[in-house]
Design brief:
By secondary structure, the protein is an alpha+beta fold. It contains 22 helices and 34 strands. The strands form eleven sheets. Strands 2, 3, 6, 9, 12, 23 and 24 form a seven-stranded mixed β-sheet that branches. It has a six-stranded antiparallel β-sheet with strand order 15-14-13-28-27-26, with helices on both faces.
């Protein structure tokens, strides 16, 4: 029996051990339940609420940016980054078991089935090409196909960023592609930590593309979360204030508002400490701002500047148009050449505001104004000084040279500025300020906005400009005609604007105000200097600048419709310690109409091979001014005074008599007709006469519009070909030549 007893004893011990184990484990579980439910219950419930409930941010909508003519320049739109899951994963059956082939290997499949992929790829590539026209359909096909055919394709392959939401949505709706379009991606934040974001995001869109982009502003990226231009300067107004709302988290990280997103928070509420120590706040959307830019003038300025840059091959240039009284900048074009030879507004390249350069002859206006302001010098505008040729000044190295005339020429201040004489400016400076050069420098500093033109654009470090030390005689003489100093185009424009404004200098501004409750809250005009000179001096300088255009270096932009007051400028390009002999900065600055100034404008073209500013910059100025005058319906100050011997009736060569009669009636003139039944009529020194072409003979089309000329030829059974534009200046065969019906007459048009 000893063996049987031993077995019973072991069995008893095992039962006791198991019972003890059950009691210990069960007791531990019961104790844990009691501890979680009652002892630590409040703490765990508190932690659970923190994990499942909380205040979530309610992002405010960023305000739009409008142009002064009511167009939207910048707004917020949703865009998507297209990522595709092109990888492979094991295929499962309906019972969630792995599918294997005849050899026992797992069958791998892609989220986009091969049939769906092949059927939908062409449509996907077409949609992407429509969204990004710069990339072809074949580009996207090759990109996606190459990745899919790899041994280990990317599970989150970046195809194209920043496509419209509508395009992304269409791709998701293509049969079989929805599972392959990635909805969330993992990226690194600025601290290098991974975070997950949706592929749908909101971005600022420039509605007019590259038009005025440096003025509107660029986004510096999610890491910096800052803007340039108007976007950056008025960020506090545009951004608004984010709100927050109380919500509960569901599965997969989704949050839904609770109790309409509100929750009462008090000091006695423990949630006030764990969730948020402040009360709930509603979001305040950003306000829209209205810029001073006019899309029509901006487009005109950019096109005129780009056309000249393509012609002369400059590195880049800027053209700025400003309203004189208010200081509103109506257009600010900044074009830079890229490696492909294309001129466009490169990000953070506001040349008018940040590009510093030696102005050359456009700065002579500043020097002369400072000289006329100096009561000690008391310079008379009728004073005769030497101009032209080459002249040496005692004590100064080298000679001062003009590219016209000889050393015996003399002229008044009018001729100095009109012919842009370096010698003449140095004669005045040497005579009146040689021993008072600091007085001249101080006089310039008092009237020139070196430090005060910090506009309402955020473009990094503002450039202030400077005047070099003038202790050396050569530096002083160089300063007298626009060297030994640096400036920006915006500073120089501000000065010319002040001259046209009677001496009152206003600060350039790019924003009219912000919109609140549907009304514009305007920003006021800031006066930098109430008077840079006396009204008499301002009038003298205006007369001198008008003379530059009428009879001087700017006479290539003279016109008879309205007056222009301005100054050409050409400066050798300085680089790496020396001047280039064949590269220049060309400029033209002024205001118009000179009869009653309303606008100021400056054009600067950098690193151009043109010797004179009149050839590169002045024509751009004229194109801008012509368009502004033509479009400004309120400009009643522009009047053309007919001369005594001008013709009092419209002038024409030949034309349809009914149309000629209509023109006379619209202009209020009498129309003396010799034959009211004639279809065609011609005009000569003796009056109006009927014109009757002879059959079988080429009619005379000279002086006719192309419309009338074609009609005249067709009525005589002839055909017409033409080239050029304007009115008919030449025809082949010539008038009076015998011809057969159906013959072709070649017309040459010109102005």
């Amino acid at each position: 029996m000893p063996q049987e007893y031993s077995n019973k004893e072991r069995l008893t011990k095992m039962v006791i051990v198991y019972l003890l184990l059950v009691l210990v484990v069960g007791g531990s579980i019961i104790y844990g339940i009691i501890k979680v439910q009652w002892i630590d219950g409040n703490e765990w419930r508190k932690r659970g609420e923190v994990r499942e409930e909380g205040y979530r941010p309610d992002p405010a909508a960023r305000g739009d940016i409008y142009s002064s003519d009511g167009k939207i320049l910048a707004t917020t739109i949703p865009v998507c980054d297209l990522y595709l899951d092109l990888g492979h994963q094991p295929q499962r059956d309906l019972n969630n078991r792995y599918v294997r082939d005849s050899n026992g290997n797992q069958v791998m499949m892609s989220p986009i089935h091969d049939t769906s992929y092949n059927n939908g790829l062409s449509q996907v590539c077409k949609l992407l090409h429509q969204a990004v026209p710069s990339k072809s359909i074949e580009y996207f096909r090759t990109k996606i196909d190459t990745e899919r055919k790899k041994a280990n394709p990317h599970r989150c392959f970046p195809v194209q960023k920043g496509i419209p939401y509508s395009t992304w949505r269409e791709i998701c709706q293509i049969q079989g592609w929805n599972k392959g379009v990635v909805k969330q991606v993992t990226e690194l934040d600025k601290n290098g930590k991974p975070y997950t974001r949706d592929v749908i995001r909101k971005v600022r869109a420039h509605i007019y593309g590259n038009l005025g982009e440096n003025t509107i502003g660029f986004y510096n990226g999610a890491i910096e979360n800052t803007y340039t231009g108007l976007e950056g300067y008025y960020d506090s107004i545009l951004r608004g204030h984010d709100g927050k709302y109380f919500c509960r988290r569901l599965t997969r990280g989704a949050w839904i508002p609770q109790n309409d997103g509100s929750k009462s928070v008090s000091a006695a509420d423990p949630d006030a400490v764990t969730l948020d120590s402040t009360s709930l706040q509603s979001k305040i959307d950003g306000k829209a701002i209205v810029s001073t830019l006019d899309t029509r003038y901006q487009d005109i300025a950019e096109n005129a500047l780009r056309e000249m840059l393509l012609k002369c091959g400059g590195e880049g240039g800027c053209a700025v148009l400003m309203e004189m009284q208010s200081g509103h900048v109506l257009a600010c074009a900044n074009l830079t050449r890229d490696t492909n030879g294309t001129y466009w507004e490169m990000p953070n390249s506001n040349l008018a505001y940040t590009r510093i350069y030696e102005p050359g002859s456009t700065f002579k206006t500043v020097i002369m104004t400072a000289m006329l302001n100096d009561k000690t010098a008391n310079i008379d505008t009728a004073e005769q000084v030497h101009i032209g040729g080459r002249k040496a000044f005692s004590g100064a190295s080298g000679v001062i040279a003009d590219d016209f005339g000889n050393n015996h020429d003399t002229s008044t201040l009018r001729g100095i500025l009109a012919r842009s004489s370096n010698v003449g400016m140095c004669e005045l400076g040497w005579k009146y300020f040689r021993n008072r050069r600091q007085d001249l420098k101080n006089g310039v500093m008092r009237i020139y906005p070196y430090e005060s033109v910090i506009t309402d654009l955020r473009q990094g470090k503002a450039i202030k400009g400077r005047v070099n030390n003038l202790d050396h005689d050569r530096d002083f003489l160089n300063f007298c005609y626009g060297y030994s100093c640096n400036t920006t185009a915006m500073q120089l424009l501000t000065f010319y604007n002040a001259l046209g404004n009677g001496g009152r200098m206003v600060k350039p501004i790019f924003c009219k105000g912000y919109i609140e409750n549907g009304e514009l809250v305007p920003f006021g005009t800031e006066v930098l200097n109430e008077s840079i000179c006396s009204p008499e001096t301002a009038q003298k300088m205006k007369d001198l600048l008008v003379n530059v255009v009428e009879h001087g270096t700017g006479n290539n932009i003279k016109n008879n419709t309205y007056g222009i007051a301005g100054k050409t400028g050409t400066a050798f390009y300085y680089e790496k310690g020396g001047y280039h002999s064949d590269i220049f900065n060309a400029s033209f600055a002024g205001f118009f109409p000179s009869e009653t100034p309303k606008y100021s404008c400056i054009v600067v073209i950098f690193r151009v091979p043109y010797r004179h500013g009149r050839e590169a910059a002045a024509p751009v100025f004229k194109k801008i001014a012509d368009c502004v005058v033509a479009m400004d319906k309120k400009m009643d100050c522009v009047k053309v005074k007919p001369s005594e011997d001008c013709v009092k009736t419209p002038i024409f060569a030949k034309g349809n008599q009914q149309q000629v009669l209509k023109i006379h009636q619209l202009l209020g003139y009498n129309y003396p007709s010799a034959d009211s039944n004639a279809y065609w009529v011609m005009q000569d020194s003796t009056g109006h006469h009927p014109y009757k072409p002879v059959k079988g003979v080429v009619p005379d089309c000279k002086g006719m519009t192309i419309k009338d000329a074609i009609e005249l030829l067709q009525r005589n059974g002839l055909r017409a070909e033409f080239k050029g534009y304007g009115k008919v200046s030449r025809q082949t065969p010539s008038a009076g030549t015998a011809c057969k019906k159906g013959a072709t007459i070649t017309l040459t048009l010109s102005n």
